[in-house]
Amino acid sequence: MPLFPKFEDWNIVGIIFERKGHYRVNGNRARGKNAKKARQGVEKHSRTVFWAVFDQKGKLLESGLGGGQHEVDPQVIEDLKKEIHNNRSIFRVLQTLESGRTENAAKPFEWNDDAAIN
Q1: Pick from 105, 108, 109, 97: which is nearest to 11 by CA?
Q2: Which of 19, 59, 97, 98 is deepest in the core (most CB within 10 A)?
Q3: What are the counts of helices (DSSP H) followed by strands (DSSP E) for the chain?
Q4: Is 60 exceeded by the pLDDT of residue 3?
């Protein structure tokens, strides 16, 4: 048995479909048992297009499609997969969560370039 048991301290981010071409980044910081429960909630949410789990250093641990994936064109999903590592909207939400000032954060999603499909 390890001296220090593994303890999840995750930032869970969901890209939420609002209406055609409009998305929101919702983020939650969760620890321990609540971390897995929060991830499952984001995964299953009916408007989550894509979700991701990051550690407190910003490392992507896992990601996947959400319950709302069928609300958008498949190209949007592909674009999100490409931007998940460096999108400024996601980065701002992660910064807020990592600061520890709050356990919830949300911002409108903005594509990094104008070429993204709505």
Answers
A1: 97
A2: 97
A3: 3, 5
A4: no
Inform me whether the pLDDT recorded for 2 exceeds 60. no
Cα separation values, 61 from 16, 39, 75, 117, Å:
19, 12, 23, 26
CA neighbours closer than 13 Å in the CB half-sphere of residue 112 = 13
- The Cα–Cα gap between 106 and 51 comes to 14
Closest among 79, 71, 25 to 51, alpha carbons compared: 25
pLDDT band at 5 (very low <50, low <70, confident <90, very high): low
- Pairing of β 9-19 and β 22-31: antiparallel
Length of the chain: 118
Q: Is the pTM of this model over 0.85?
A: yes
Q: Return the ∠ at Cα 112 (arms to 111 and 118), rounded to 5°.
A: 25
Per the CB < 8 A criterion, the answer to whether 33 and 84 are in contact is: no
What's the average model confidence in pLDDT over 58-83?
95
3-state helix, strand, coil in the chain (%, to 5): 30, 35, 35
